[in-house]
């Protein structure tokens, strides 16, 4: 513990975490915090303006309804000046009609109708003379009879009197709204006068603003107060109009009144020209903003508190793997710190550098062995010991060889050793040059190997296209280049293309036969086997070979000998050409080899005949004797291992997985190579014997090991997955949950709870 807190790296981490915590907080405090509050303040102000806009719209609608009533009165045939003033009966009918309009509109307290040059006013209740109306019935506080009569007789457009006390109105303030009829006519014949209780408008304002707590006032076009609603702090309207910008339809400003700040908001109606103004104390409107400020500060404080706690925990979590890695590198390399100022990362870096140097040295050794490995891989391919192209590509990747196409040709190159450079340097240069020409073509993959037979070497080509024209053109072009650059003739025999690596040996036989035709065709030529194939009659029945393979798998040696005798007689027939004999021998060899690979028998393939045997044996009898000897061995192995091997191999594979499940580089291919088997066979065999795939069984072992570690107290997930062979945490958690139905953490907690219950 003491050494850890003396570590310079520990304090570097501490400082970095503090900066990670501090920088976001400063950004929030200096920018985001203020920006958020300004935005919230704007939202509050806009909300207040929107409520004021609702008041304006509703009042506009109400007054528009009054104008519609005036229009309907002007269009009512029963209320024309002639009909209304014709006689007393018609006058009573006028009162009745006005009563209908009054009953249909709750906003207007009373409706009056006056015809110009007539002495009467009609209402929904009675008929009044102008003098009696203004002096006895409705006694306006600031409206004389003369002004009243002039207004109702000469009005050309809608006019409004602000709210005022009127005698006979039960002590309520009334707003008087007058509309000439017909409205917007050059010569109106009458006036409709509406009396509106001030409370009708203030109640609308109160229903919308509710607990707004401010003062609201309405001004007409000339700035004269129409009505107002007093708030919590009294109401002063004297200078209120001067505080707003009348040039703007809506807006809000802050003013100081009596030592307090107030929001003054206004909105102007485009319909009536009225201005609606509210005054409310700023502290009341911003109360919600103040609460959010408090919550934000509390949140920042909580972030600092929990951030500090997180720093403390993360310091211990993050430093522990670094310390373990340092200890591991010191244990692996045997290196110790050279001084007290060397921190963990420097120590690990020096150890990694040392391991890197060792890896480079190992890489140089591998590079030196690449030609030999390449020669070995290509030789096995020609001998038919590799059954799948994927197996070849996987093994050949380390030496830079592999095929992506599925059509293969073999070629035999013969050079004249008389060149000045000598045979070996010329052969190496020719192989490298032809491989480079294949890569440059972009369509052909080709790799060469030395046959160790004087001036003869071999090439294997792979293509995606079955047409061999491009390959023939490439070889002819290369032949010309070789003659010019190395001054030695090159004769090339090219075999037929086959769509599988199992027939590469046959293509090699054809290439060898084509090369032998240089005696007839001449040197320094590309001889395609297809050009000389008409001289070779190699058609034959493969019935005996099919029966031979069947008897081999059955282990029936008597039948095998009969089949071999029939094949030898066919080869020794006088009409059989040399190439036909070679082809039959090639198919015979592959018939013997195929069961060895398919049944994965433990016989040594080095003892079996291959395509090279055709060049070593002098007579067919020698080859037949070897095939008979190999057949006896294969039959014995089949009979001895047919029952026991399945169970033994299964147990060996399981034991291998239990030993190596924690290796990060474990794969089906590496396990198959450990048992000298092919990966496809191991996969198929294990699933048949165990009832599950190799990856499924491996996952079962790893999950079981993880459960044991969790039950024994291991709670560091990164350490745990490294010890069971996983490299990705999310992949392990997903696999664990698929298998156990819960995450590793949930499993750990469930197990601990079970232990506690058992203890109780």
Q: Percent of residues in beta strands?
A: 5-15%
Which strand order does the major sheet show? 3-2-1-7-6-5-4
**Unreliable parts:** 1-5
Number of contiguous helices: 28
Instruction: Give helix % range.
Output: 55-70%
> What is the name of the CATH superfamily of the domain at 403-535?
Reverse transcriptase/Diguanylate cyclase domain
| End-to-end gap | 35 Å
**Overall pLDDT, averaged?**
78
- At the fold tier of CATH, the topology name of the domain at 403-535 is Alpha-Beta Plaits
Rg calculated over all Cα atoms: 53 Å
Number of strands: 17
What CATH architecture label of the domain at 403-535 applies? 2-Layer Sandwich
* Backbone structural class: alpha+beta
Q: Please outline the major beta sheet.
A: 7 strands, antiparallel
Describe this structure in words.
The chain crosses the membrane at residues 14-33, 294-317. InterPro entries: CdaR_GGDEF (IPR041522), dCache_1 (IPR033479), Homeodomain-like_sf (IPR009057), HTH_AraC (IPR018060). Keywords: Cell membrane, DNA-binding, Membrane, Transcription, Transcription regulation, Transmembrane, Transmembrane helix. It is a multi-pass membrane protein. The protein is elongated. By secondary structure, it is of the alpha+beta class. It starts with a helix and ends with a helix. Among the domains are: 403-535, 2-Layer Sandwich (Alpha-Beta Plaits); 543-642; 645-759, Arc Repressor Mutant, subunit A (Orthogonal Bundle), CATH 1.10.10. The strands form three sheets. Strands 3-2-1-7-6-5-4 form a seven-stranded antiparallel β-sheet. It is built from 28 helices and 17 strands.
């Amino acid at each position: 513990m003491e050494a850890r807190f003396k570590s310079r790296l520990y304090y570097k981490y501490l400082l970095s975490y503090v900066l990670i915590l501090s920088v976001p907080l400063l950004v929030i405090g200096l920018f985001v915090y203020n920006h958020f509050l300004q935005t919230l303040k704007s939202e509050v102000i806009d909300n207040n303006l929107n409520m004021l806009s609702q008041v304006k719209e509703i009042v506009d609608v109400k007054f528009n309804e009054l104008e519609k009533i005036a229009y309907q009165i002007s269009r009512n045939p029963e209320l024309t000046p002639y009909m209304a003033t014709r006689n007393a009966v018609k006058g009573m009918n006028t009162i009745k009609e006005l009563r209908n309009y009054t009953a249909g509109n709750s906003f207007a307290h009373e409706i009056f109708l006056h015809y110009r040059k007539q002495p009467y006013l009609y209402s929904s209740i009675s008929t009044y003379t102008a003098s009696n109306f203004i002096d006895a019935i409705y006694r306006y506080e600031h409206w004389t009879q003369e002004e009243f009569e002039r207004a109702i007789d000469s009005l050309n457009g809608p006019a409004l009197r602000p709210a005022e006390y009127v005698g006979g109105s039960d002590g309520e303030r009334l707003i008087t709204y007058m509309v000439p009829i017909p409205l917007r006519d050059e010569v109106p014949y009458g006036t409709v006068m509406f009396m509106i209780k001030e409370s009708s408008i203030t109640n609308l304002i109160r229903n919308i603003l509710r607990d707004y707590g401010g003062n609201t006032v309405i001004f007409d076009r000339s700035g004269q107060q129409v009505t107002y609603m007093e708030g919590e702090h009294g109401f002063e309207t004297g200078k209120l109009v001067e505080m707003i910008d009348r040039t703007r339809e809506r807006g809000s400003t802050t003013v100081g009144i009596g030592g307090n700040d107030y929001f003054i908001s206004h909105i102007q109606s485009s319909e009536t020209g009225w201005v609606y103004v509210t005054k409310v104390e700023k502290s009341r409107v911003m109360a919600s903003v103040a609460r959010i400020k408090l919550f934000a500060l509390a949140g920042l404080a909580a972030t600092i508190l929990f951030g500090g706690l997180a720093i403390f925990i993360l310091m211990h979590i993050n430093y522990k793997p670094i310390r373990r890695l340092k200890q591991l590198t010191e244990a692996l390399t045997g290196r110790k710190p050279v001084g007290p100022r060397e921190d963990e990362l420097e120590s690990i870096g020096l150890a990694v550098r040392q391991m890197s140097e060792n890896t480079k040295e190992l890489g140089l050794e591998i590079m030196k062995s690449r030609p030999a490995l390449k020669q070995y891989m290509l030789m096995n391919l020609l001998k038919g010991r590799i059954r799948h192209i994927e197996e070849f590509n996987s093994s050949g990747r380390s030496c830079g060889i592999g095929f992506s196409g599925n059509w293969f040709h073999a070629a035999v190159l013969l050079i004249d050793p008389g060149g000045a450079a000598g045979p070996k340097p010329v052969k190496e240069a020719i192989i490298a040059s032809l491989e480079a020409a294949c890569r440059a073509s972009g369509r052909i993959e080709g790799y060469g190997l030395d046959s160790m037979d004087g001036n003869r070497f071999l090439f294997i080509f792979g293509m995606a296209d079955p047409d061999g024209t491009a390959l023939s053109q490439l070889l002819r072009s290369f032949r010309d280049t070789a003659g010019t650059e190395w001054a030695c003739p090159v004769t090339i025999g090219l075999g037929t293309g086959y769509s599988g690596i199992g027939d590469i040996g046959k293509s090699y036989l054809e290439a060898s036969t084509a090369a032998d035709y240089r005696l007839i065709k001449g040197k320094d030529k590309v001889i395609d086997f297809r050009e000389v194939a008409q001289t070779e009659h190699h058609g034959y029945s493969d019935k005996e070979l099919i029966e031979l393979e069947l008897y081999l798998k059955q282990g029936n040696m008597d039948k095998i000998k009969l089949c071999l005798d029939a094949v030898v007689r066919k080869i020794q027939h006088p009409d059989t050409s040399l190439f036909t004999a070679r082809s039959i021998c090639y198919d015979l060899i592959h018939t013997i080899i195929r069961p060895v690979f398919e049944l994965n028998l433990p016989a040594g393939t080095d003892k079996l005949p291959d395509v090279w045997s055709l060049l070593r044996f002098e007579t067919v009898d020698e080859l037949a004797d070897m095939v008979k000897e190999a057949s006896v061995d294969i039959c014995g192995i089949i009979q001895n291992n047919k029952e026991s091997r399945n169970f033994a191999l299964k147990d060996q594979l399981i034991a291998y997985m239990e030993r190596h499940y924690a290796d990060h580089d474990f794969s089906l291919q590496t396990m198959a190579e450990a048992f000298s088997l092919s990966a496809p066979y191991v996969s198929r065999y294990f699933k048949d014997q165990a009832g599950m795939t190799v990856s499924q069984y491996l996952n079962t072992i790893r999950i079981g090991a993880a459960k044991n570690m969790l039950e024994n107290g291991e709670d560091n997930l990164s350490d745990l997955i490294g010890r069971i062979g996983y490299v990705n945490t999310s992949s392990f958690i997903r696999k664990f949950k698929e298998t156990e139905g819960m995450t590793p953490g949930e499993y750990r907690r469930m197990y601990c709870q079970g232990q506690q219950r058992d203890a109780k």
